[in-house]
Amino acid sequence: MTLDPRRRDIDEWFYPRVRKSQKQATRGPREIPSEARTLTIHDNPSIMSRAASQQPSTPLENRSSYERDDLEEERNGFEIAAAALGQPGSNDGVRFYTGEQTGFTSTLDACSSETTLPRHLLLPSRPREYLAEEDREYLRIKGVFTLPGNDACSELLRCYISHVHPVMPIIEIDQVLDYYHSGRLREYNTLLLWSVFFAAVNFVPQSIYEKEGYKSRKEMKSALYSRAKCMYNNGGEREKIILLQSSLLLGFWHSELDEHMQPWYWTGIAITLCQVLGLHRNPDGSRYNSSVTDRQRMLWRRLWWSCFFRDRWLGLTFGRPFRINIQDCDTPWPLVSDLMYDVEATPEVLYAAFVPSEMPRLARYWVTLVELSKLLGDCIVMNYQIQRPKPSVEDVEALEQRLLQCELPDQYEKGLTRLATFYCCHVHLHYQALLITFYRPFSAEIPHIVPSNNQEDWCLRMRRKTDAAASQTNAILETLAQNKLLGFAGPMTPPLLVPAMQTHLYLCRSADPLSQTFRLNKIDTLMLVMEELQKTYTAASVYRGIFMKAIQQIFPNYRPSALLSTHTASPDRTSTGLPGSDNPEPVAGHVGQDTDQGMETSFNDDFVDALMDQASLFNLWEYWNGV
């Protein structure tokens, strides 16, 4: 493999010379993996005294490897106990979460004068083990140690901070910018850096990926994902926060090779790491935890609520059960200040070059998205869980009132920049998808205690509210297209169109030809938007293919409208109005069918019912396999 000489090789900076521990060199039949950490009882004086009384007089080095293993494993228990009892061996170390009342450290509660011992502990750190030479060579061959060129790195960081960070604020941007500004980007965590670059490549201009030798943005995205995943699986990363951050970012990957379930897979890993670290619990729940800094508290909240946000919306998209039970969590609700501490710590010169001036406003939008995610979870629990009681009218009206009381940003606020306008609309797209998810089941299902003479009116009102939310989705997307803002759309945008498209298709079953035409035109508008988004996002292509098949079940002669401008169909992001485009072209399209194209209607109620029965679009696949 020949590497581009313009790129910077970070191999020499990444892993120092390989180092084998004495323990590995003299190991008997029981081998320890290369990433395991070598410990001795002498590393922590506070533990050594407690362990010494239980040790035979035989020197440690004279014992068998099995005895040494047992002592070192036992020593780890001493460290956990000492930290829980407030006797840490150092002021620095790794985070450890003991678990709830049933956890193994609850044994110590009975021995402590404190009412409740802290659950978030600081354990002594372990010596770092370096990769073996053959592992490092494998990573080198895969290109992991070769960064993109300077221009590409700069643009990727700028795109990440402007377009990914506002909806996934999971890294501390002042730190990565400091590494970049001081010429030490190669010393930043390699796994996290590739993950950041992968998430940001959706927004880079055409000139960047072409300069790096790629024919398309999708090709560059695939290459960067491959390097990040290779580093994740083979780089020996042990820091759980880094693994968590990387998992969330890799959750933006879609591939037909795994039935497009990678977002679900990677987000599941991130949620597991959150719970392993105890980020779902308030570190100050029982008493103030002095081992946790304020900066760590804010980052932990950002990480946890980012996982929560993804869990709820991916559960809706894929029709999967939630992994997070909100009743198990007491992490404080996120604040705007949680998202601003690293922004405010960024030097002015870097802030001006990389951070959008709208960041405080975007931080408020993100807090609103988390609030909407909480309501989405409540809606799905009420309407879509397999084992659920039938809600009462009071239950439905109470949840509806909470939905209607949401404080959303003003789409028509004076002075909104293009970036702020997009993210304001992005919040409203989430809200309309939430309303559809809530109202749609009640267009056919009737809660308890609705009088029989009022049931038809109940369903009609709910159907109209569903229709209104779907139509509002169309209006928002038309605004984005007409103002050339679709270029700001991220990987979370295509799924937000699906609830509206499902609703329009469901209402196409009306016997009124005029209503059918209106609905079909609305679907066609969203199909045009999907066509624009599929140039960057594989998920949009999948959704468009599914709905093409679904529409043809009702209208066998249906053909989607095409964009009028061939230039608009160019995959170059400058055509959709990203900052820096010189001549942005509008997104134009024809939303109706040709009058001389006969539109025969052929209802397949079973197919449309399969489309509407669940929150997930992907349930259609199961139906197709059975017909």
UniProtKB/TrEMBL annotation:
Instruction: Tell me the protein's name.
Output: Fungal-specific transcription factor domain-domain-containing protein
Polar residues: bias regions: 41-63, 565-578
The superkingdom listed in its UniProt entry is Eukaryota
Task: Check the record and name the CDD domains matching this protein.
Answer: fungal_TF_MHR
According to its UniProt entry, the protein's GO biological process terms are:
DNA-templated transcription
- Source organism per UniProt: Aspergillus candidus
Q: Which InterPro entries match?
A: Fungal_Detox/Toxin_TFs, XnlR_reg_dom
One matching Pfam family is Fungal_trans
Q: Which molecular-function annotation in GO is an example for this chain?
A: DNA binding
Which residue range or ranges hold the Xylanolytic transcriptional activator regulatory domain? Answer: 263-340
Keywords assigned = Nucleus, Transcription, Transcription regulation
Segments of this protein annotated with the region Disordered: 19-72, 565-599
